[in-house]
Specification:
The structure is a single chain. With about 500 residues, the chain is an alpha/beta fold. It has two domains: about 210 residues, Jelly Rolls (Sandwich), CATH 2.60.120.430; about 260 residues, NAD(P)-binding Rossmann-like Domain (Rossmann fold, 3-Layer(aba) Sandwich). An eight-stranded mixed beta sheet has the order 3-2-1-4-20-21-25-23, with helices on both faces. The chain has a seven-stranded antiparallel beta sheet with strand order 8-11-18-13-14-16-17. Strands 7, 9, 10, 12, 15 and 19 form a six-stranded antiparallel beta sheet that branches. Helix 7 runs parallel beside helix 10. The chain is elongated, with a radius of gyration of 29 Å. It binds NADP nicotinamide-adenine-dinucleotide phosphate. NADP nicotinamide-adenine-dinucleotide phosphate binds next to helix 3, helix 7 and strand 22.
């Protein structure tokens, strides 16, 4: 019998390219992902414990009181429990520790902590001394010649903060992030996935992804005719690539047909660029969980392995792909491949092994970038900027403390208040970025701001200065204030 090769279908080829190239922006996956992410990060009363460091200080005491009033579970890191008992509400947990002594920042301190609010500081006081309740330091308006007493800013405001950040980082591991939940598919899903078969190379295999019975089914017919031999489904490029850098890998829940399939991820938006690949075997007609650690993904161009052996940049995942191919790598054959009909059912695709990181709110100070800033007019600057050197480099070390948090990958909010006062009553606040403002703000207002930032998704990964402004009817729209900030 004269068996004719089936002819290549240019229509399908063009359709495939059009599907993936003509629509350049697809935010659906992003929305899906960010949707979950935001939910996880918006911390409310249902969250675990809030740890307050510096709980016995001027701002710290107020933070604790507001948290208690709002029904949060509060743990306080204090240097002396007996003293703390006389200053703090009864229904808070006290743990003795010192941020300059990392051995005191134990796993017990961090257990079940969902947020850390750090209000610590070296002790600053007037050279002539202060009253027992630190009235001169606290009032914050009248100038007294200041000095540092006790430990240095380097130890407390830099190394101490860094120790606390490190302690917060090593919380319980292993959370999962659903990327695709086919059990509960949204209408968007159908717009994200499309077939990429060997028609793009002249072949005649044909596949599709169907969404049925609470799962996705990657199914079709794979043919080796016309030198072909692969079928796949791939997501369109994600406009804002996924950052999965805090996870260990990808987990697929699949039921297959005993064949060996491939999972591929890409970190660039090119249609035909480098992909990071892993082969996995399926068990005929059985559900299995396939874990693919990121460090085992093999960099490939088409099915050729790359010499670089470079690890995937997990901060920048642009697209995902599932494939059935006659080939493994570099011309080797897939040992479990059978041409013809195939079906891979997929229930979910997740990132696994994520770190459970708390949100970290750090009180720093306006002016931290101003000492030694070219062109700065010191005469107009607040005392801490003018006297940074005499005060042990207090602002310089506070900036280093901030840096340790920004570099940590912990979601953070860095608040830089202007001069702190004991004024009472609601204050209207302004936020700024760039570290140029001067002014004052009450400890009450800063304490409230710390707590508001726990529940504002746009407070994540921002650094900003804050001061109070005169207003006949002071009030704050927290959502608007945070929306005005640029993430770092
Ligand atoms: N004062 C201002 O005008 C001004 C302006 C801008 C920013 N700020 C910043 O605002 C924040 C709050 O200021 P504040 O006036 O509320 O400070 P504060 O009253 O001096 O309180 C400092 C807190 O830090 C604790 N602390 C110090 N060293 C510690 C250590 N090694 N381990 C654990 N805890 C330690 C103190 O504990 P003890 O009770 O045991 O001493 C105290 O609870 C600080 O970061 C400050 O630098 C202040």
């Amino acid at each position: 019998m004269n068996q004719k090769n089936p002819s290549w279908d240019i229509g399908r080829f063009v359709k495939t390219l059009a599907y993936f190239d003509i629509i350049p922006f697809i935010g659906c996956l992003q929305r899906l992902f960010l949707g979950n992410d935001n939910k996880d990060r918006s911390i409310g009363k249902s969250m675990g414990i809030v740890l307050v460091a510096g709980a016995t200080g001027g701002v710290g005491k107020r933070v604790v009181q507001i948290l208690v009033d709002r029904g949060y579970q509060v743990r306080c890191l204090v240097r002396n429990c007996d003293r703390a008992k006389s200053l703090l509400p009864q229904n808070v947990e006290l743990i003795e520790g010192d941020i300059t002594k990392p051995e005191t920042l134990t796993p017990q301190l961090m257990a079940k902590v969902s947020a850390v609010i750090c209000c610590t500081s070296v002790k600053v006081q007037p050279v002539e001394g202060d009253t027992p309740d630190r009235a001169k330091y606290n009032q914050g308006i009248k100038f007294y010649q200041p000095e540092i007493v006790g430990d240095t800013p380097e130890n407390v405001d830099y190394l101490g903060v860094k120790n606390l950040v490190q302690a917060a980082k090593y919380l319980n591991k292993s959370t999962d992030q659903l990327i695709f939940d086919f059990n509960n598919p949204s209408a968007d899903l159908k717009e994200i996935w499309g077939a990429v078969d060997d028609v793009v190379m002249g072949g005649v295999s044909e596949s599709e992804i169907k969404f049925i019975d609470n799962m996705a089914v990657f199914t079709g017919n794979v043919s080796t005719q016309n030198s072909g031999g692969f079928a796949s489904v791939r997501t369109k490029n994600i406009a804002l690539p996924l950052d999965l850098s805090t996870y260990e890998g990808i987990e697929l829940r699949v039921k297959g047909d005993g064949q060996r399939y491939k999972f591929l991820a890409r970190t660039e938006s090119k249609w035909d660029g480098v992909a990071y690949c892993h082969s996995f075997d399926t068990v005929d007609n059985s559900w299995i969980d396939v874990r693919i650690p990121f460090n085992q993904l093999v960099p490939v161009f088409r099915a050729k392995t790359l010499d670089s052996k470079e690890l995937i940049n997990t901060q920048n995942i642009c697209s995902l792909q599932l494939m059935l191919s006659k080939f493994e790598y570099d011309g080797e054959l897939n040992p479990n491949f059978m041409p013809g009909h195939f079906a891979l059912q997929v229930e979910s695709i997740k990132a696994y092994g994520g770190e459970t990181l708390p949100q970290f709110v750090l009180i720093s100070s306006a002016g931290v970038t101003r000492p030694n800033r070219p062109g700065i007019n010191l005469a107009e600057e607040p005392p801490a900027v003018r006297m940074n050197e005499q005060l042990g480099g207090i602002l310089t070390w506070k900036l280093r403390g901030e840096d340790s948090l920004r570099e940590s990958k912990i979601p953070y909010t860095i608040i830089r208040p202007c001069a702190l006062t004991e004024e009472t009553g609601v204050q209207e606040l302004v936020f700024e970025q760039g570290d140029n403002i001067r002014g004052k703000v009450s400890r009450d207002a800063i304490a409230l701001l710390c707590i508001e930032s726990l529940s504002q998704p746009q407070a994540s990964n921002v650094t900003f200065e804050v001061k109070a402004v005169e207003s006949p009817n002071p009030s704050n729209n927290w959502q608007q204030l945070f929306a005005s900030l640029q993430p770092d």
